[in-house]
Design a protein that fits this description.
The complex is a heterodimer of chains A (192) and B (268). Chain A has 9 helices and no strands. Chain A is mainly α and 192 residues long. Chain A has one domain. The model of chain A has no long low-confidence stretch (mean pLDDT 88). The N and C termini of chain B lie far apart (83 Å). In chain B, helix 2 packs across helix 3 and helix 2 runs antiparallel to helix 4. In chain B, the strands form 4 sheets. Chain B has a two-stranded antiparallel sheet with strand order 1-4. Chain B has 2 domains: 62 residues, Electron transport complex subunit B, putative Fe-S cluster (3-methyladenine DNA Glycosylase II, Chain A, domain 3, Orthogonal Bundle), CATH 1.10.15.40; 166 residues, Alpha-Beta Plaits (2-Layer Sandwich), CATH 3.30.70. At the A-B interface, helix 4 and helix 5 of A face helix 1 of B.
């Protein structure tokens, strides 16, 4: 039950994009079409989940026994960068179309702050191994969900008569704000 | 001192470990790519218009290298780019033809009758879905400029509800042909100085066509009768000019009572 709550908390209540405003770059950049948005969401979820697992091991078996708390950031960067490199090779080999659709945003997962946030929050909240993985996975799924919703809305938006000054980024940011308001409705569901 | 050593050792160790895993992955996921693809891609315009029949410039370059596509299929680049590709591929180039888009309607706002007021989405694709929205003619140009939006080369401007094509800028990529929901735009091969085309697509009977549009073909057939070279034929109530016989004399355009046969050419 606790696991489910943790998952829901990470995915909905404390959604990274709409609650903490992390990972805005792909949220605004890749949400033009549903397919690429969802692909980006799953790629991020993959990196997030693996980062959570690996960072837990590094934290509790390497850094903390040696009292190297100040190296957390460096270790997180190292892990995320390597994982993204790996993911990039994997996607390039297995799906060149997806590779081209994601373009620059794929290597930019490296600097996606939501993944870094996962890596830093795990020791801070004292999660165990299973909890860490669930937390990373939940956060990733929440990210994917928001990417999907946003891409769906923006696909419909192509047919809307948006006033000229609001076209493009402004209307997207307004939608993001409204979505964040809507997601506030989940706050009563669970507390953190 | 000890702390520094430990931190260097742990970070170095982790870095080496990840480097090792990545190097294995690099060998395992290695992709062999022909360097020609990259070279051809540089030679191509990079507009990704799809005029060659491939999804993107990159896709086209890959197909050329595989031998599945001809080197002169890029309509945008024309002869000069085809020559560049020919050099990369080491083959001889056959001559290419210049194609331009042509709109088969020439009724501006005011000349075409409206049958209703339209307050919906200002796009041809949307207007066409509800029986042509406000336009009385069910064949003619709706005038919301889907082709203008689709044009990647800024060659189309909407003038009084009708697209005007700049034949110098037009590359014949065919984006507008796909964008027009009424199939009013076609690609025409420019192989002579002067050519004549029918700028109406109306299949309505003469009386109705005359009533709803000032620039409509009424199917009178004068052009067919007057053509000295037997190049103009009426098919389904619309004239069709046979390029093989047409000598470009222009009698049909002069005699057309509805003024729907127009001249196109490079010498304008």
């Amino acid at each position: 039950m606790k696991i489910v709550l943790l998952f829901l908390s990470a995915a909905l209540v404390n959604n990274f994009v709409l609650r903490y405003f992390l990972g805005i770059c792909p949220f605004l950049g890749v949400t033009g079409r549903i397919e690429s948005a969802v692909a980006m969401g799953f790629a991020t979820t993959f990196v997030m989940t693996l980062t959570a697992a690996i960072i837990w091991f590094i934290d509790y078996f390497v850094l903390f026994p040696f009292h190297l708390f100040f190296l957390e950031y460096v270790a997180a960067i190292l892990v995320i960068a390597s994982l993204v490199q790996f993911l990039e090779m994997f996607i390039h080999k297995n799906s060149p179309t997806l590779y081209r659709a994601l373009g620059i945003y794929l290597p930019l997962i490296t600097t996606n702050c939501s993944i870094f946030f996962v890596a830093l929050l795990i020791p801070l909240r004292g999660y165990n191994f299973i909890q860490s993985i669930i937390f990373g996975f939940g956060a990733g799924m929440g990210f994917t969900l928001v990417m999907f919703i946003m891409a769906g809305i923006r696909e419909q938006l192509d047919f809307a008569d948006v006033p000229k000054p609001l076209q493009g980024a402004p209307i997207t940011l307004i939608i993001a704000g409204l979505l964040a308001l809507a997601f506030m409705g989940f706050t009563g569901l669970i507390s953190a | 001192m000890n702390l520094i050593l430990i931190s260097v050792a742990t970070m170095g160790g982790l870095g080496a470990l990840f480097a090792f895993i990545l190097s294995i992955a690099n060998v395992k996921f290695k992709i062999e790519e022909d360097p020609k693809i990259e070279k051809i891609l540089e030679a191509l315009p990079g507009a990704n218009c799809g005029g060659c029949g491939h999804a993107s410039c990159r896709n086209y370059a890959e197909e050329i290298v595989k031998g599945n596509a001809s080197i002169n299929a890029c309509v945008v680049g024309g002869e000069s780019i085809a020559q560049g590709i020919a050099k990369i591929m080491g083959v001889e180039l056959k001559s290419t033809e210049k194609k331009i888009a042509f709109v088969h309607c020439r009724a501006h706002n005011g000349e075409k009758m409206k049958k209703a007021d339209y307050e919906g989405i200002k796009k041809c694709s949307a207007a066409d879905m509800i029986l042509g929205a406000d336009l009385a003619c069910c064949y003619g140009c709706l005038g919301y400029g889907d082709c203008e939006d689709a044009c990647l080369f800024d060659a189309i401007t909407m003038v009084k509800g009708l697209p005007e094509i700049d034949i110098v800028k037009c590359t014949g990529c065919g984006s507008c042909v796909k964008a027009c929901p009424r199939n009013l735009i076609s690609l025409e091969i420019l192989n002579r100085d002067v050519q004549y085309k029918i700028a109406c697509a109306s299949l309505d009977k003469g009386k109705k066509a005359r009533e709803i549009c000032l620039k409509s073909c009424i199917g009178c057939g004068i052009c067919e009768r007057i053509c000295p070279f037997d190049a103009c034929h009426m098919i389904n109530g619309l004239p069709y000019i046979d390029e093989r016989n047409c000598q470009g004399c222009g009698v049909c355009a002069q005699k057309c009572p509805r003024d729907v046969i127009v001249e196109i050419g490079m010498n304008e």
